[in-house]
Amino acid sequence: GDSVTQMEGPVTLSEEAFLTINCTYTATGYPSLFWYVQYPGEGLQLLLKATKADDKGSNKGFEATYRKETTSFHLEKGSVQVSDSAVYFCALSNGDKIIFGKGTRLHILP
Amino acid sequence: GAGVSQSPSNKVTEKGKDVELRCDPISGHTALYWYRQSLGQGLEFLIYFQGNSAPDKSGLPSDRFSAERTGGSVSTLTIQRTQQEDSAVYLCASSYYSRRDSSYEQYFGPGTRLTVT
Fold first, then answer.
1. Which residues on chain A are in Cβ contact (under 8 Å) with B107?
2. What are phi and psi of A41, to 5 degrees?
3. CA–CA separation, A47 vs A60, rounded Å?
4. Fewest 10 Å CB contacts: which of A40, B37, B50, B81?
5. Is the pLDDT of residue A12 over 80?
6. What is the pLDDT of residues A42-71, one digit of tens each?
7. Do B42 and A45 touch (CB under 8 A)?
8. How confident is the model at residue B15 (pLDDT cuts 50, 70, 90)?
9. pLDDT band at B42; cut points 50, 70, 90
10. In the predicted model, what is the mean pLDDT of residues A38-43?
11. What is the percent of chain A with per-residue pLDDT over 90, rounded to a whole number?
12. B50 touches chain A (CB under 8 A)
C-alpha cells in the first residue's frame, strides 16, 4: 500500500543553518504531496504542497520539489530560525485519504 | 472563516470511565478524520468519514473506541472504559476536494488532550 518515509529526528541545528528533511514515498498513480508543521502545543497546519511532478511548493522560506523519478519530496530552508522549531510531517494523498510520515522533530539553537 | 474546532480542549478522567470528544469540521467539508498522537509520537489514524459512505474504521485500536458523524457534520469520538494507555492528544481534521489543483487538503483542529488517571 501507499506509504511515506521521512528521516528520523530529532534534528538539531544552529540558527541560520541550512535545513533538509528527507521524505520519500511509495504510491500508485500520481499522489499529491504535503508538508505539515506542528508547533509546540498546537495542532497540525499545512506548510506547503505540490500536486504534480516537478511542482515546487513553498511557504515561509521553506521549499519542497515533487520528484517523481526519485519518489521524493524533501523539505529545505536556506536559513532556519529559532521559531522554526517544531515537528514536521510529510504526507501524501492518493484520493481522499491522507497518509502521514512519522514526523521529524526539529530543534533550532540560538 | 472558522476552522475545525474540538471540545473539550483538555479532559482528565478516571480509569474505567467513558469519554466523548467532539469535533466540528469546517462547513462544507465532506471528509472528517480522527487521529491519535501520543506524547512525542507521530499520528495514528483512527477513523475516517466521507460523505454518506460507510466510515473507514480500520485504525480503531479496540472495540472500546467508536465514532459517529451526525448529519454529515459534527462528529463524536467515544472511548468506553478508558485505560491509561488511552492518554494522548486526539486530533480531528476535515478536508475538501480542490478542483483547482485536483487534490484533497486536510485542516486540523487544535486537539483534545485526554489524560486517564
1. 46
2. 75, 10
3. 8
4. A40
5. yes
6. 889 999 999 999 999 999 999 999 999 999
7. no
8. very high
9. confident
10. 87
11. 79
12. yes
Report the length, in residues, of chain B: 117
- Asked if pLDDT for residue B103 goes beyond 80, the answer is no
Shortest alpha-carbon distance between residue A43 and chain B (Å): 4
**Using the beta-carbon criterion (under 8 Å), do A44 and B101 form an inter-chain contact?**
no
- Cα-trace Rg, chain B: 14
Tell me if A30 sits within 8 A of A53, measured CB to CB: yes
Among partner residues A44, A97, A101, which is closest to B108 by beta-carbon distance? Answer: A44
| Spatial separation of the C-alpha atoms in residues A3 and B90, rounded to whole Å | 22
Tell whether B33 is within 8 A of chain A (Cβ): yes
Cell 472495540, residue located: B63
CB B93 to CB A89 under 8 A?
Answer: no
Residue in the block written with cell 471540545: B7
Low-confidence winner among A22-26, B36-40, B49-53, B82-86 (lowest mean pLDDT): B36-40
Which residues does A71 contact at the CB level (< 8 Å), separation at least 6?
Answer: A24, A25, A26, A27
- Is B17 in CB contact (< 8 Å) with chain A? no
Closest residue in A to B102 (Cα–Cα): A51
Q: Is residue B1 over pLDDT 70?
A: no
Q: Band of the pLDDT at A73, cuts 50, 70, 90?
A: very high
Q: What are phi and psi of A84, to 5 degrees?
A: -85, -5
